[in-house]
Amino acid sequence: MNRTWPGAAQKWKEALGRYQYALLVIAVGVVLLLLPAGGREGAEEAVPAQTEGTAFDLEAFEEKLARTLSQVEGAGQAQVVLTLDGGSRQVLARNQDREGDGGVSNTVVTVGKGSGQQEAVPIQTVAPQFRGALVVCPGGGDAQVRLKLIEAVSALTGLGADKISVCQGG
User: Which candidate, 103, 61, 97, places its Cα nearest to that of 80?
Assistant: First the structure.
């Protein structure tokens, strides 16, 4: 028994055969759009943890620097005190809109956190600038050790030699 397709159905069959690859791509695109975004909730929870991890911890930096400077030959057990010029700050994402009269308006980009809460979107966290450094160690009286310590602190903090003081301690 050989069935023949009605006229309209025959046209549809020919169109489907001709555009089968385009229809396949469209079908795959629709399926991908309908899939839930994987890991979205986990990514939102990871952002605060990352922001906390990037905050500058002065005491931890001083301790790490003191441990490192103590390994310089002739320095001995070093203690480090650093002073800062202000605190760390975040650079926030901004949306710049041009108005009809030629003016420009800047607004901070925020994201909804649910329950009507909004949070600004940080682009980067800028660490504070150092103002000065004091290194106290038993070998601080030796000129060569002092020079090595000043160079090391300068390399790690960006301070000039005039902002770093090395003293001999007991």
Answer: 61
77 CB contacts (<8 Å, ≥6 apart)? 70, 137, 138
41-86 pLDDT, tens digit per residue, is 443 333 333 344 456 788 898 999 999 999 999 999 999 999 888 7
β-strands 89-92, 164-168 pairing: unpaired
CB 120 within 8 A of CB 89: no
Question: Domains of the chain by range and CATH?
Answer: 56-88+127-170 (3.30.300.30), 89-123 (no CATH)
The Cα–Cα gap between 112 and 68 comes to 44
- Token readout for 105 is 């308006």
Total-model pTM: 0.52
Q: Residue 158 CB: number of other CB atoms within 10 A?
A: 10
Kindly tell me the number of DSSP H helices and DSSP E strands found in the chain: 5, 9
User: Among candidates 140, 156, 132, which has minimal Cα distance to 70?
Assistant: 140
Measured CA to CA, the distance from residue 37 to residue 35 in angstroms comes to 6
Query: Which pairing describes strands 94-98 and 104-108: parallel, antiparallel, or unpaired?
Result: antiparallel
